[in-house]
Structure formats: structure tokens, C-alpha cells
Amino acid sequence: HLAQNFGSGVQACYRGARWYDTDETKAVVKKWIGFYKEHRAILDSDMVHVRRADSRDIDCMLHVNPWIPEKGLAMVYNPLPIPVEKNLTLPLYYTGLTDTAQVREQDGTPQEYTLDRQYRVTIPINVPARGVTWYVVE
Fold first, then answer.
1. What are phi and psi for residue 100, nearest 5 degrees?
2. What is the number of alpha carbons within 13 Å of residue 76 lying toward its C-beta?
3. Does residue 43 contact residue 73 with C-beta atoms inside 8 Å?
4. Residue of 47, 36, 39 lying closest to 6 (CA atoms)
5. For residue range 81-129, what is the model confidence (pLDDT) as tens digits?
6. CA 73 to CA 8: how far, in whole Å?
7. Cβ count near 42 (within 10 Å)
């Protein structure tokens, strides 16, 4: 739930008496709050739906902003009970990038991709069963 809300750029106020009932719960909450704080500028920017959620394949939303260093952030969700490994095409027109893009998964090493004539890149993705990951575009 936190990954979906923060990954969609939702600025919610969560309240409750038992947020940190265990150390594992506290670690999950800290992880997603840290994610949101690190990527706040791009998560609060415009969003493009790359693939509509239909529970048959991955769901992907791409946050875009040509005026900041992180030009895009793609949130990829896998609702399936099996891992998904495939190629995903990201439409980068609204990122302001025209020739190449540096794309990295989470905090990984960036890889350079050449944009096609329609300002798109195709990246390989591997999302665990019922998992989530994100790709930063610079």
C-alpha cells in the first residue's frame, strides 16, 4: 500500500496508534518514506500511464519533468503470482530528452539508451511476483 501511494505521488497523512508494532513494520515504513523524500520532486510532477492496470500483466506509471535532474521515474508493479521478465517501452517525450537517456533501476548503475524517433526507449525489466520496482531516467 505504501509503495502504491508514495509511488503515485500521493501526499497522505497516515495516522494510527500502531504504526511501529514490530521492527519489520518500522523498516518498511522508513523505506517508503525515505523513497518518497529522495524522489519527491519527480513524484510530485506530471504522470503518464505507460500500461493500464488490468491484473493480467505489469502496471507502469511514468512521472515526468524536463526541468529537474531526474527527468523521469517509472514505477512498475507486478500483480501476478509469478515473476515477470520482459522488455518495457517508456515514452520519454515529456521528459525533454531528445537523443539519449540514462536509466537505472532503483539505486543501481545507470545504462545509456538511445531514444527512437518517437522519443521512446525499451528497457529490460524483471519484477518479482507481486512485487514493485522503479526506474530513474536522467
1. -135, 160
2. 25
3. yes
4. 36
5. 999 999 999 999 999 999 999 999 999 999 999 999 999 999 999 999 9
6. 10
7. 23
